[in-house]
Design a protein that fits this description.
543 residues, alpha/beta, eight-stranded parallel beta sheet, five-stranded antiparallel beta sheet, 16 strands, 25% helix, globular
Length: 543
């Protein structure tokens, strides 16, 4: 199965829309399709190629929409299916592709299938669509095995009739049984439904978790620790070979369309395993969590970049690069801490952050990311330099990790606070004046609104816009070649093609720039002698 070397998705910059927090069109405090449609010109002017929309389906919102009750409709708080059709057409009219989230590992406990399963009882055909088992112990009062859920607590919940059902995440998210033919056929139908409406692709949630060992063996771990099969070659529910047969079937469906649709994997796997998901007859691209979680240190970043490019080249797939998303602490905050990598799950890092330092480093990281070969992802608000909101009142926290951890893990709400668009006071243009966003915005975000940054040539917004314009215009930045050049310790220097260089100084002292080069775009002011200061990046053209 061949792919055109210039296919749009191989070098696409994709903007992640967490719809609940993007823009509120009706004033109820929740982002919606009306708000998203009104802000599509912002995305077009930013210079991205596509938008990826987090789940917009009907859902009780036990996990921010990743508990789907109906895969073929729109949550009433977000709008209607007709509005979705219009949004897709309007995005295409602006040159923007549209990618949706699909959540195949689990559904909502309010999904019609699960309600039917509870009503039908043990041994029924309806329960075969899920993972129901008898419990252990004389009276079956113990869970079937020792697996733990990602949000804390056991991965099993007992029903009124005594059986237990599996949920690798929250109890409101029962896992589907992907060994069942009806489950596979249903999701193939769902894919076609949205592809036929004009959607250009899907990001696959928990792509590495859909296949389970039918024996459901104990793991022998004291608690849930990671989303990967770390330390285990044959993990019973992460990164099993069975997922690849599923994705080969999905790829065949995507390739049926005259303008082939695409898939993006969210797969938390061990180093060296991601390429298996990107073979020519499987998925197109995957998120690069190793890059996102890496410390902002030259040696660590180069190791991740080299390994990523080598692994992807082996299967002919493009790399992708990402700094933040809706599940991780925003990188402006991470980069202002003593340790700049992702060290704790679900927003539970309590180290203080120097936001001025973090912003300076985030600007440099943006130029690094956008200079690398392959695709890139921008999480909403990243182009505004938004930090994590770490002082949300406990009474407003909604991430299931907060309750499931016994109020010890604050969760991911701090990276999901609604965007500031304009004005000097909340809701900062997120919704109509006087409306109250579903999560409170910091008062000091008035300097970070899109409106305020439009007028500032040194703003984060202008940096992103300039970088994306140059990336689109320069053929070297759309290619897939990278050549490392010698540079001092603590720095990175590489060439893209024959004419463009990227230099990143992550050391503690200024460095000289290469001879016979002129700066094109810098993340911050260069030294008076033309040197590159610490925590600064620059794109250069060879004369």
């Amino acid at each position: 199965m061949s792919t055109a070397p210039d296919a749009w998705w191989r070098s696409a910059v994709i903007y992640q829309v967490y719809i609940r927090s993007f823009a509120d069109g009706d004033g109820d405090g929740t982002g919606d399709l009306t708000g998203l449609r009104s802000r599509l010109p912002h995305l077009a002017s930013l210079g991205v190629d596509a938008l990826w929309i987090n789940p917009w389906y009907p859902s009780p919102l036990a996990d921010g929409g990743y508990d789907v009750a109906d895969y073929r409709d729109i949550h009433p708080a977000f709008g209607t299916l007709d509005e979705a059709r219009k949004m897709i057409a309007e995005a295409h009219g602006l040159g923007l592709r549209v990618i949706l989230d699909i959540v195949p590992n689990h559904c909502s406990d309010q999904h019609v299938w699960f309600r039917q399963a509870l009503a039908a009882g043990p041994g029924s055909a309806e329960r075969e669509r899920f993972v129901f088992r008898e419990g252990k112990g004389e009276d079956g009062s113990l869970p079937p095995n020792d697996w733990h859920a990602a949000f804390g607590g056991p991965a099993w919940t007992r029903t009124a009739d005594g059986q237990w059902y599996l949920h690798l995440f929250a109890p409101e998210q029962p896992d589907l049984n992907w060994d069942h033919a009806e489950v596979r056929a249903e999701f193939e139908s769902i894919l076609r439904f949205w592809f036929d409406l004009g959607v250009d692709g899907f990001r696959i949630d928990v792509a590495h978790g859909m296949a389970k060992d039918p024996a459901l063996p104990d793991l022998g771990l004291p608690e849930f620790s990671v989303l990967t099969a770390e330390g285990q070659d044959d993990h019973p529910h992460w990164d099993r070979e069975g997922v690849h047969d599923i994705f080969r079937g999905w790829r065949a469906i995507a390739d049926e369309y005259p303008d082939p649709r695409i898939f993006v994997a969210e797969a938390h796997v061990r180093p060296g395993r991601l390429a298996a998901y990107l073979r020519p007859d499987e998925l197109h691209t995957a998120f690069n969590f190793d890059f996102l979680k890496s410390p902002l240190e030259a040696a660590a970043l180069r190791e991740v970049i080299d390994r990523t490019l080598a692994d992807h080249a082996g299967v002919g797939a493009p790399a992708t690069w990402v700094l933040s998303n809706h599940d991780e602490t925003r990188h402006v905050t991470r980069y202002g801490r003593p340790h700049t990598g992702v060290t704790t799950p679900l927003g539970n890092d309590v180290q203080p952050s120097d936001l001025a330092l973090g912003t300076r480093r985030a600007r440099a990281a943006a130029l690094l990311m956008l200079a690398l070969p392959g695709g890139a992802y921008i999480y909403q608000g990243e182009e505004l330099g938004l930090p994590e909101v770490e002082d949300l009142p406990e009474e407003v926290l909604q991430d299931p990790a907060w309750e499931r951890s016994g109020h010890t893990v604050r969760g991911r709400d701090g990276c999901r606070v609604p965007l500031p668009w304009s004005g000097d006071t909340p809701p900062f243009g997120f919704g109509p004046a006087g409306s109250t966003p579903w999560l409170p915005q910091p008062e000091d975000w008035k300097t970070r609104t899109a409106e305020a940054q439009e007028a500032d040539p040194a703003s984060m917004l202008r940096l992103y816009r300039d970088a994306l314009r140059l990336r689109r215009r320069d053929p070297a930045l759309r290619g897939e070649e990278l050549s490392w050049l010698d540079s001092p310790e603590g720095t990175l220097l590489f060439a893209r093609g024959t004419g463009l260089l990227c230099a990143v100084n992550l050391s503690a002292r200024p460095i000289a720039l290469p001879d016979a080069c002129r700066p094109v775009l810098a993340s911050g002011p260069l030294g008076e002698d033309g040197q590159l200061p610490p925590d600064t990046a620059v794109w250069l053209h060879r004369d």
